[in-house]
Amino acid sequence: MASAVLPLTRALTGVQAVANLACAVLVRRHRHDATGPPRCLHRTAAVLLIACALPVPALLAAAAPVAAWAGWGALFIADALVYATGDTYRDTPATRTAHQEGRT
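RESULT FIELD:
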């Protein structure tokens, strides 16, 4: 049973890595756009949360080795860093000024 679930675990961890990379590109692309970071950050947060949670049931069901858990943990930290970068871009002075001008 565990050997049948391990390829699924690797595939879901790969999905997590691809989602992380795609979200990092999305956040970086919108860093200079005044309206980009707040809009893309909500989508990025949802995608990263779902992609990070997907491998957990497979890891638990497979009684995965430590290396699989370490890979998931490293990607989890990378997901958090992508979100933190996007949140930092959201708080840049150009973005705050654009949002304040839009509210008045």
